[in-house]
């Protein structure tokens, strides 16, 4: 093991300048003046003659293996091969065309390697006070990001062998220096920092991207332009290049402070921004930067203070202008503040601990609620105590304190929250092109063809909008235009959107108002409830429920309206997830067609496998030949704004050729939205989610029916695929809705980390992600069992 306390004595090569001049003339044919340059372990001189600067002679420490020098030379060659515009100095070969030669010191008798490095023009940053500005820090970060991007494909057998005093990866060997410092606050802080490094920081660094990095771009090794102190002119000295985390690169640059700097992370913020612009960071890497910066400053403070106290004759090589001061300031600032500032600067979402394993930050829930209501107005938060959700993955959502909640409520991310394939597709398309459908874009036409390929021939054309509300609104407009009618039919309590037109088709939005305020052109059909409805136990329930459509059409006629459209959510989410009797939907569709209207299948909640079939109306028993429009939103792009109207090309031509010659939505069907939609179809097919919806949904309903055997509060379990309706009753005999107990059960479930929603009074709607598996079902059933026990 290397003794780092002995390496604190730099032991540079011992040479008379006269010997060096003679060797340079012999090997390179160069003569001139030699100016000594500051160096940690080596010797370096700038050579000038009447033609100007010729290069930098570097003599390596005697302890430097030949492979390390070869590593440094080939790393530069690789960088320039990958990115020729990077300002790094190549090696100038000897007269014998060698990259370096072995020489022997006449003073010490030790053998060393000598090489000539090309001169790079510019001003060294440490001699350029005006360079210490935000723009410089961004630019040096971007330059080193580009360098690391170039080095990611580089391999050398000595990449892991260049251990040195400043190497983060081997910093624990510096702890034997600690007794050389006086007892007190500094030694205590350094000790705790190295202890944390052993148990947390270093293991975490191994989980970041590790590769060859320069890790010495401090203000002594960076040059800027003579004309612009923010323009990077050269990156010098590859003596510390080694295999390490890319974070070692960032914190090394960021410990470069201007005189009088008081903010320990101002350079870090701008360096990280620049680096991220060229070589994007991950959230995991950003969240580790505080600890790595803390460790880097501790290493620097320890080395310099140890040298100062234990080897004063050798000098300190670097003065402690700021390392110890900034270490204390950073420690006082704390991880929460630093991480929040970094995430904000890099436009990452707010910090969220992973499964309670990350550090816990202070709760600012009350301040967040006040800020939200101040700028957004009063918002319905679903629960008495609003949930502060910061992250989600698959079937789970995570609050700011890292608590995992099983999501059985949100029907939008049907393929699971933040599905990696969909996220990747969005990012890739956004990087290439995000524009509207005025232009010819392959992805838009490809997506429309794929979405309609298994539908009947008359459903062959797509219109893209931005949401389910827009899709339903447009479908109703087209139905009104083509039929010449203005009336509408909808099931009681239904919801189909929030535009002016779709709100009229959403009784859920106006049934609480006085009857005089009901929209006169709309008539509601009674819900075909087979558990607690008017004809629930009747053998001819389908005909009896469907007969209400005759009444509704006649009621419209009496108000001088005829039906333009019947709109149906065959998932029946707003109706308690009821299961209508067989043939009901076909019967009412026939009645509407006979009256000159159109049938709209609202697939916002029913489609994409939710009902155990790709199209929900098919699973619910509505004949596809009787559907005139299919509308989609919400899950069609897994939460990315996209809505779809599917209709026949003939109807589309009639509509555009009539009173609507222009039909265009600027963002509807943009390339990114269509890429998200295409990726959703990929996930459904690859993961066989339609079949999985049936299998897992059946398991969930079976387990709930088992719970019903011991919990009389459960009156009925129903649904299809990954959609479950749970009706709670105070009396099974009378089927009396348990309204109060439903609210209580929702609160008990959230205590047990399950999010669930209600529908009609006394009913729960359970809408899990299609990615749920046995683990999620078990978690849900256990929470439901415990919650029901709490109510009994």
Radius of gyration: 35 Å
Q: Architecture of the largest domain in CATH?
A: Alpha-Beta Complex
CATH fold-level label of the largest domain: Aminoglycoside 3'-phosphotransferase, Chain: A, domain 2
Query: How many runs of DSSP E, i.e. beta strands?
Result: 27
Low-pLDDT segments, ≥5 res: 1-8
Tell me the β content.
Answer: 15-25%
**Largest sheet, spatial ordering of strands:** 15-21-20-19-18-16-17
Q: Summarize model confidence as the mean pLDDT.
A: 93
CATH superfamily of the largest domain: Aminoglycoside phosphotransferase (APH), C-terminal lobe
Content-based structural category:
alpha+beta
Number of domains: 3
| CATH class identity of the largest domain | Alpha Beta
The shape is: elongated
What's the N-to-C terminus distance? 66 Å
The tally of helices reads: 23
Helix content: 25-40%
- Tell me the major beta sheet: 7 strands, mixed
Family: Belongs to the class-III pyridoxal-phosphate-dependent aminotransferase family.
Keywords: Lyase, Pyridoxal phosphate
Pfam family, one: Aminotran_3
Protein name: 2,2-dialkylglycine decarboxylase
Keywords summarizing the entry:
792 residues, alpha+beta, Aspartate Aminotransferase, domain 2, Aspartate Aminotransferase, domain 1, 3 domains, 7-stranded mixed β-sheet, 6-stranded antiparallel β-sheet, 23 helices, elongated, disordered N terminus, pyridoxal phosphate, 2,2-dialkylglycine decarboxylase, Aminotrans_3, Aminotrans_3_PPA_site, EC 4.1.1.64
Q: What does this protein look like?
A:
This protein is α+β, with helices and mostly antiparallel strands and 792 residues long. The protein has three domains: 4-345, Aminoglycoside phosphotransferase (APH), C-terminal lobe (Aminoglycoside 3'-phosphotransferase, Chain: A, domain 2); 468-632, Aspartate Aminotransferase, domain 2; 689-791, Aspartate Aminotransferase, domain 1 (Alpha-Beta Complex), CATH 3.90.1150.10. The chain has a seven-stranded mixed β-sheet with strand order 15-21-20-19-18-16-17, sandwiched between helices. β16 (487-491), α15 (500-504) and β17 (522-525) form a beta-alpha-beta unit. The two termini are 66 Å apart. Residues 1-8 have low confidence and may be disordered. Keywords: Lyase, Pyridoxal phosphate. Residues 55-276 form the Aminoglycoside phosphotransferase domain. Its EC number is 4.1.1.64. This is 2,2-dialkylglycine decarboxylase. One of its GO terms (molecular function) is pyridoxal phosphate binding.
């Amino acid at each position: 093991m290397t003794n780092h306390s002995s390496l604190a004595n730099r032991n540079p090569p011992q040479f008379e300048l006269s010997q060096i001049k003679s060797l340079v003339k012999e090997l390179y044919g160069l003569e001139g003046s030699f100016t000594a340059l500051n160096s940690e372990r080596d010797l370096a001189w700038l050579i000038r003659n009447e033609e100007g600067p010729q290069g930098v002679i570097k003599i390596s420490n005697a302890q430097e293996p030949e492979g390390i020098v070869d590593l440094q030379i080939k790393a530069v060659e690789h960088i320039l091969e990958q990115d020729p515009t990077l300002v790094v100095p190549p090696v100038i070969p000897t007269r014998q065309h060698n990259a370096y030669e072995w020489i022997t010191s006449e003073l010490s008798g030790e053998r060393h390697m000598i090489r000539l490095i090309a001169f790079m023009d510019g001003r060294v940053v440490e001699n350029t006070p005006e360079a210490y500005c935000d723009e410089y820090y961004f630019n040096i970060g971007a330059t080193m990001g580009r360098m690391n991007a170039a080095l990611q494909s580089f391999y050398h057998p000595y990449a892991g062998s260049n251990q040195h005093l400043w190497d983060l990866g081997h910093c624990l060997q510096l702890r034997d220096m600690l007794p050389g410092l006086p007892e007190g606050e500094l030694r205590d802080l350094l000790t705790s920092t190295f202890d944390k490094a052993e148990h947390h920081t270093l293991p975490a660094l191994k989980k970041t991207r590790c590769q060859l990095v320069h890790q010495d771009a401090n203000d002594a090794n960076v040059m800027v332009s003579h004309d612009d102190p923010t323009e990077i002119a050269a990156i010098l000295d590859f003596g510390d290049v080694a295999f390490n985390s890319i974070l070692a690169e960032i914190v090394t640059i960021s410990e470069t402070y201007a005189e009088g700097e008081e903010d320990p992370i101002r350079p870090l913020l701008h360096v990280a921004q620049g680096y991220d612009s060229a070589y994007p960071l991950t959230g995991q890497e950003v969240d580790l930067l505080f600890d790595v910066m803390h460790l880097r400053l501790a290493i620097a403070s320890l080395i310099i203070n140890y040298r100062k106290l234990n080897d004063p004759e050798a000098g300190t090589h670097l003065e402690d202008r700021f390392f110890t001061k900034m270490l204390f300031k950073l420690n006082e600032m704390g991880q929460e503040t630093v991480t929040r500032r970094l995430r904000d600067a890099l436009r990452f979402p707010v910090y969220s601990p992973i499964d309670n394993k990350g550090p816990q930050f202070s709760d600012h829930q009350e301040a967040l609620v006040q800020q939200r209501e101040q700028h957004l107005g009063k918002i319905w938060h679903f629960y008495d105590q609003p949930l502060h959700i910061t992250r989600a993955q698959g079937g789970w959502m995570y609050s700011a304190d890292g608590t995992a909640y099983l999501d059985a409520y949100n029907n939008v991310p049907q393929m699971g929250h933040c599905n990696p394939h969909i996220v990747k597709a969005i990012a890739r398309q956004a990087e290439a092109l995000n524009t509207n459908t005025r232009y010819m874009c392959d992805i838009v036409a490809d997506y429309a063809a794929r979405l309609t390929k298994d539908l009947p021939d008359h459903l062959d054309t797509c219109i893209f909008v931005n949401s389910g509300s827009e899709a339903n609104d447009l479908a109703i407009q087209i139905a009104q235009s083509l039929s010449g009618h203005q009336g509408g039919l909808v099931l009681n309590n239904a919801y189909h959107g929030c535009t002016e037109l779709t709100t009229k088709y959403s009784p859920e939005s106006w049934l609480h108002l006085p009857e005089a305020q009901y929209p006169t052109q709309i008539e509601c059909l009674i819900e075909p409830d087979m558990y607690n409805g008017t004809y629930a136990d009747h053998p001819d329930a389908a005909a009896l429920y469907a007969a209400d459509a005759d009444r509704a059409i006649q009621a419209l006629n009496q108000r001088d309206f005829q039906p333009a459209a019947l709109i149906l959510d065959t998932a029946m989410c707003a109706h308690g997830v009821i299961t209508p009797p067989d043939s009901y939907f076909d019967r009412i569709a026939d009645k509407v067609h006979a009256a000159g209207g159109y049938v709209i299948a609202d697939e916002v909640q029913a489609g994409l496998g939710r009902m155990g079939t790709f199209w929900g109306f098919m699973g619910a028993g509505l004949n596809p030949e009787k559907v005139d429009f299919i509308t989609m939103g919400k899950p069609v792009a897994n939460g990315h704004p996209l809505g779809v109207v599917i209709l026949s090309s003939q109807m589309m031509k009639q509509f555009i050729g009539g009173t609507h010659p222009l039909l265009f939505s600027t963002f509807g069907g943009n390339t990114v939205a269509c890429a998200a939609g295409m990726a959703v179809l990929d996930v459904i097919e690859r993961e066989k989610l339609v079949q999985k919806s049936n299998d897992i949904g059946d398991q969930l309903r079976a387990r709930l029916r088992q719970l019903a055997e011991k919990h009389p509060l459960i009156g009925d379990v129903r649904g299809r695929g990954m959609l479950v309706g749970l009706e709670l009753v105070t009396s099974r005999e009378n089927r009396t809705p348990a309204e109060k107990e439903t609210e209580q059960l929702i609160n008990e479930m959230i205590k047990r980390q399950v999010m669930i929603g209600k529908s009609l009074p006394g009913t729960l709607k359970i809408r899990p992600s299609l990615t749920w598996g046995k683990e999620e079902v078990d978690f849900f059933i256990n929470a439901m069992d415990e919650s029901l026990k709490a109510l009994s």
